[in-house]
Design brief:
The complex is a heterodimer of chains A (74) and B (376). In chain A, 24% of the residues lie in helices and 43% in strands. By secondary structure, chain A is an alpha+beta fold. Chain A has a single domain, classed as SH3 type barrels. In chain A, strands 3-2-1-4-5 form a 5-stranded antiparallel beta sheet, with helices on one face. The longest helix of chain A is centred in the C-terminal third of the chain and has 18 residues, at 55-72. Chain A is globular. Chain B is α/β, with parallel strands linked by helices. Chain B has a domain at 75-178 and 263-308: Rossmann fold, CATH 3.40.50.11740. Chain B has helices spanning 11-15, 20-33, 46-54, 57-60, 80-91, 112-117, 128-137, 154-162, 179-189, 201-207, 213-218, 230-246, 265-274, 304-308, 324-329, 360-367; strands at residues 39-43, 65-69, 95-99, 122-125, 143-149, 170-177, 196-199, 223-225, 251-253, 275-282, 286-295. In chain B, α6 links the parallel β3 and β4 (122-125). Classes of the chains: A alpha+beta (74), B alpha/beta (376). The A-B interface holds A 1-4, 15-16, 26-29, 31-34, 43, 45-48, 50-51, 53-54, 57, 60-61, 64, 68, 71-73 and B 15, 45-47, 50, 54, 72-75, 99, 101, 126-130, 148-150, 152-153, 155-156, 159-160, 163, 165, 200-203, 205-206, 228-229, 257-259, 264, 266-267, 270, 356-358, 366-367.
Amino acid sequence: MCLGIPGRVVEVKGDKAVVDISGIKREVDALLVPDVKPGDFVIVHAGAIISKISREDYEETIKYLRELAEVMYQ
Amino acid sequence: MKAGSINDINFGVFRDKKYAVSLKEKIKKLADSIELDKINIMHVCGTHEHTITYYGIRKLLPEKVDLIAGPGCPVCVVPAREIDEAIKLALDGIKVYIFGDMFKVPGSRMSLAKARAEGGNVSVVYSFLDAIKDFKNNNVKEGVFFGVGFETTAPSFASQIANGNVPKDLRILPSFRITVPIVKYALKVHKHNLHGIIAPGHVSTITGAGAWSFISNDFNIPVVVAGFEPIDVLLGVYLILKSINEGIPRTYNEYERVVRWEGNLVAKSYIKKVFTEIDGEWRGIGKIPNSAWIPNSDYESYDARKYYNIKIEKSMDTPPGCRCADVVLGLAKPTDCKLFRKVCTPTNPIGPCMVSSEGTCSIWYKYGGHRIFDES
């Protein structure tokens, strides 16, 4: 539960945002980072955006998480 | 207070796997020049432990450098009494929402999974937001969210409450814990045997790297906020050794790509608005001052513990022989526990450290000694 998952904001709907997380679209809480815009790369934790990140860091983190996911919940 | 300078380090280079070997050499050189028989570095995050164990990072380090897993598993530290409270509510027919990690953690007599098998109303959800949706869409009469988590998780509850998005009959059973006080406690318990701390990356997204500067200021040992890739952890170790070698304890932020020095100010203001700090019970460890959050007097109608006035007569945190609390504090390794692997396994977990995917015992059981970082 200290894991944050990177995603890309697809749509902002008031205080919520739709985030594409590895191809799955999820509606998440955008209250903690209220200035997110579509296209932003973010870290999502327990259904809430907790931080914005750069595209480069997003890609790097995704690569690592894919590997992690393969083994962590097998 | 001084932040460590990391300008002299080319991060792009250190993030590349093939540079792990040169970093390993640098770490060895530094370790050799430090006049300590043993250099103990504690981290406080289940995801760090996963990276360390999965990639065999301990084997990459010089023998005198040890990485100790500290309190980094929120599910592991929720006292049995609070799990018993959630179970009691679920068995009374109140819809209890939980995060998946909490499902199989044993309370005093049973887990929430067992309670559900016995007819308890338990629902596993992805987020607080999803629980609010489910509550509204299914016209649930009374619901309780078992609020477990550290600084990373608590703000998403506070923000929804502060914005009036939470129906009045959806309450929170608060089991939030704060990592800064438990790290302080761990530092005291270990006396002077810890020489550096790797601070948790995502908790620090909220608290800010600055929240850890008390470690270098008051305890005179270096601290590094680190990310979760193997190179991040190695770099964390490198920075700690560099700081020890220079004789100047510093607070570094290696995870600058995500973590700011001041943290997420919006999230912190929601926490301040909705919660109040109380002394929190940590499973098998005891009470730690100002280490838990509950809704403050303005929002106490959301506090399920107060509203239902739940009474649990007797609770049992530690099953006989289980060393989970020592493992959480980094006083024992999973292999120091007689039950580990023999009696206690992921399919038959005795204590919470074997249940959660962030528990040190679970991580060691699954990956301990299997994967070694490729040195060739």
